[in-house]
Structures are given as structure tokens and as C-alpha cells.
């Protein structure tokens, strides 16, 4: 760790439904998770004396507002979809909340996507750890994501392929 840098973490939670098309096991069914999200930031705490943020890497309430905008509002109580799920159109047309991601919604891909998305908001993201179940998680270090974005996004055509 660089001198004077401190890592801070804030934990969030969201509930989503998904389906892993082609999965050999039970995850081929539509099912849901209460995801636990750990966002880790690393930077030098702010030195400016008398500032509201003095001694903070970031005010946790400011971090919360960004994570809510970028992640929670999009994923919470949504069907998070690749778009190839047999029930995708039906769920969408029923008026239920759908979040079309365009990639397979594994916990690895979701953690990477969230990490990349938060870093694009100029947060000093160190890593993101996403728990899909109480026993299974993926962790992504921002430094391990290619500059032009995660491979599964840059491979895709359309909105993410900037
Ligand atoms: N490497 C990965 N493996 C699996 C993923 C994943 O995203 N990455 N996802 C799933 C399913 O979405 C599934 O819902 C989770 O599977 P699993 O951990 O097997 O769930 P359980 O509830 O059975 O967990 P236990 O703690 O073992 O009861 C599958 N694999
Ligand atoms: Zn699952």
C-alpha cells in the first residue's frame, strides 16, 4: 500500500432474480439472490483542515449515494438479464423490472461490471467483492480490469462497445 493511503469499505445489499442459460445445474432455473456488495476504496485521507471531509477517504454517505445511483437502483428487485433467457420477453412485457446487461450474470461478471462502473464515477476504487450467496463470492481488483473495460463488455456490440 502506498504511504498514507487507507482502504475503506462500505457494504450494501440488493435483491435480484436471474437465470444462467446453459447452466448444467439448478441455476438454469429463474431464481433469486440477496447479493451482498463490498465496495473498497483506497486513497489518502483528505487533509484540508476544517473541511467536512477532513480525515476521510470519502464520506460514506457520498459513497452510498453513488452506489445507490449506479448499482442499487438498477439491480434491486429486478430480473438481471443477459437477454437470452427464455422468459426475458415475458417478464419484460409483464411490466416487471428488468435490467438488461447483455452478459451472463455470473457473480464474476457482476462484480467486474460494478467495479468498472464505480471507477468510471471517479471513485478511487480498489476492489469490489460481491457475495451471491452466504457461501459464494467473487472479488475483482480495479487494477485487473483492462483500461478499455472488461472483456465481456468490449466483446459485445451495442451500448457498451464504446
Ligand atoms: N463460479 C460461479 N459458479 C456459479 C455461479 C457463479 O456466478 N459463479 N452461480 C451459480 C448460481 O447462480 C447459484 O444460484 C449459486 O449456486 P450455489 O453457490 O451452488 O448455490 P447454493 O444455494 O446451492 O449454495 P450452497 O451454499 O452450496 O447451498 C452457480 N455456480
Ligand atoms: Zn444464481
UniProtKB/TrEMBL annotation:
It comes from the Bacteria. It catalyses: 7,8-dihydroneopterin 3'-triphosphate + H2O = 6-carboxy-5,6,7,8-tetrahydropterin + triphosphate + acetaldehyde + 2 H(+). The keyword Zinc applies. It is an enzyme of class 4 (lyase). Pfam families: PTPS. Belongs to the PTPS family. QueD subfamily. PANTHER family: 6-PYRUVOYL TETRAHYDROBIOPTERIN SYNTHASE, PYRUVOYL TETRAHYDROBIOPTERIN SYNTHASE. This is 6-carboxy-5,6,7,8-tetrahydropterin synthase. It comes from Paenibacillus wenxiniae. The lineage of its organism: Bacteria, Bacillati, Bacillota, Bacilli, Bacillales.
Amino acid at each position: 500500500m502506498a504511504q498514507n493511503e487507507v482502504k475503506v469499505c462500505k457494504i450494501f445489499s440488493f435483491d435480484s432474480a436471474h437465470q444462467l442459460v446453459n447452466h448444467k445445474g439448478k441455476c438454469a432455473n429463474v431464481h433469486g439472490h440477496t447479493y451482498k456488495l463490498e465496495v473498497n476504496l483506497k486513497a489518502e485521507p483528505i487533509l484540508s483542515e476544517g473541511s467536512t471531509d477532513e480525515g476521510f477517504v470519502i464520506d460514506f454517505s457520498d459513497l452510498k449515494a453513488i452506489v445507490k445511483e449506479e448499482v442499487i437502483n438498477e439491480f434491486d428487485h429486478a430480473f438481471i438479464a443477459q437477454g437470452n433467457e427464455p422468459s426475458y420477453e415475458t417478464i419484460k412485457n409483464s411490466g416487471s423490472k428488468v435490467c438488461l446487461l447483455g452478459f451472463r450474470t455470473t457473480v464474476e461478471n457482476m462484480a467486474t461490471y460494478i467495479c468498472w462502473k464505480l471507477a468510471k464515477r471517479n471513485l478511487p476504487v480498489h476492489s469490489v467483492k460481491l457475495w451471491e450467496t452466504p457461501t459464494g463470492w467473487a472479488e475483482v481488483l480495479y487494477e485487473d480490469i483492462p483500461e478499455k473495460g472488461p472483456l465481456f463488455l468490449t466483446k459485445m456490440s451495442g451500448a457498451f462497445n464504446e
